[in-house]
Design goal:
By secondary structure, the protein is mainly alpha-helical. It has three domains: about 110 residues; about 120 residues, Serine Threonine Protein Phosphatase 5, Tetratricopeptide repeat (Alpha Horseshoe), CATH 1.25.40.10; about 80 residues, Serine Threonine Protein Phosphatase 5, Tetratricopeptide repeat (Alpha Horseshoe), CATH 1.25.40. The protein contains 17 helices and no strands. α15 packs antiparallel against α16. The radius of gyration is 37 Å and the shape is elongated.
Length: about 375
């Protein structure tokens, strides 16, 4: 019933606004044309009187008569077309006036929360914990931190909550607030740098690189900072230096370290070349390699393409295989299919959007796609 009443009120308001437009515009156009015609006809009559009195030469009268007649025809044509033109303008305005509220309602139904009970801003903030209103909670914590910037726990809670929602830019701002009000340590600097990288789509930037460098000054053996230091070098094209850092990090890693596998994968992705007809192609068995040697170049290319398509199909069914996505992107590149290679990395980035190390490897792979 509420939505029905709102619709009636909306269209009623549109009708009220349109009515004067229709009354005002069409008659005004017709009155202007009629007035012009009356003036030109009076001029024509006056010309004939002047000619009859001998006040104007016949040749001049003919020229004036032709000009006045031309103006009469133009005014009459304008009078005939004006209602149609004005009608089109009117209908265009009417369509716009109707479309805007309809689009607004449609957008609200898709993006809004029609079932949410309205509440004043102060009430939303007061009941944020009870209702689980995330935006109100963030606003409440932000207001609290403006008044109490030394509340370190508040900054940390806000950063964690925002990062959990994938809002990495805002999370990095919260961590920056924490850094301003406490003595930095390696873990905090590395977390700040990581959110900056995530906010930048896996790409290192100057602020993140500075954060990791400062973390390593405080703790030269800090694993997360060392990994991202290697990533920074890799993205600058300094592959050998990146591999040296990652290999040293892997060699020193405890066997049960949760990040050990990610470092190993980064090393393999950069340093290894699968045994295939070209770097980055799906790996071939001994039997397939022997068979490929007997094939024509066209058949060999068709076999490789079939294997690449098979890998793509496999990943479409189970996408939790980062090595597979990187191999697929590289294979597409080798086949000259750069748009497909970029799409493979985009799909992988979406699947691993909350995994900083995976995004770092994907970003490094993007660098490899550049000519």
């Amino acid at each position: 019933m509420l939505w029905f009443l709102l619709a009636v009120l909306t269209f009623g308001l549109v009708a009220v606004l349109i009515a004067p437009l229709r009354r005002a515009q069409i008659p005004s156009a017709q009155t202007g044309s009629d007035y012009d015609l009356a003036v030109y006809r009076d001029q024509l009559a006056e010309l004939e009187r002047d000619l009859g009195r001998g006040a104007i030469a016949a040749s001049d009268a003919d020229a004036a008569r032709a000009e006045i007649s031309r103006r009469i025809l133009a005014a009459d044509a304008a009078r005939q077309s004006a209602p149609g033109t004005q009608s089109k303008i009117l209908w265009a305005k009417l369509a716009t006036a109707i479309a805007i509220p309809l689009l607004a309602i449609g957008l609200y139904l898709v993006e809004g929360r029609p079932g949410l009970v309205g509440a004043p801003h102060a009430e939303r903030l007061a009941n944020a914990e009870k209702t689980g209103d995330f935006e109100a909670l963030i606003a409440k914590v932000s207001a609290h931190l403006e008044q109490n910037p030394t509340d370190l726990r508040g900054w940390q809670v806000m950063a964690t909550a925002l990062a959990g929602r994938g809002r990495y830019e805002e999370a990095s701002q919260a961590l920056a607030g924490l850094l301003r009000n406490t003595t930095p340590n390696a873990d905090l600097l590395a977390d700040y740098g990581e959110t900056l990288v995530l906010a930048n789509g896996g790409q290192m930037n100057e602020r993140a690189e500075t954060a990791f460098a400062e973390a390593l000054k405080l703790n030269p053996d800090h694993p997360k900072s060392a990994f991202f230091q290697g990533l920074a070098l890799r993205q600058k094209g300094k592959t050998a230096e990146a591999l040296a850092i990652w290999q040293a990090l892997f060699d020193k890693a405890p066997a049960d370290a949760p990040w050990r596998a990610a470092v190993r994968a980064a090393i393999d992705e950069v340093a290894s070349a699968p045994a295939a007809s070209a770097p980055g192609m799906p790996q071939l068995s001994d039997e397939q390699i022997a068979a490929a040697k007997q094939m024509s170049p066209q058949d060999r290319q068709a076999m490789i393409r079939s294997m690449v398509d098979g890998l793509a199909e496999k990943l479409s069914l189970n996408g939790k295989d980062l090595d597979g996505w990187l191999r697929l992107a590289n294979a597409r590149k080798m086949l000259g299919e750069l748009p497909a290679a970029k799409k493979a990395l985009d799909d992988a980035a979406e699947i691993y959007k909350d995994d900083a190390l995976a995004l770092a490897r994907i970003a490094a792979a993007r660098q490899g796609l550049n000519p």
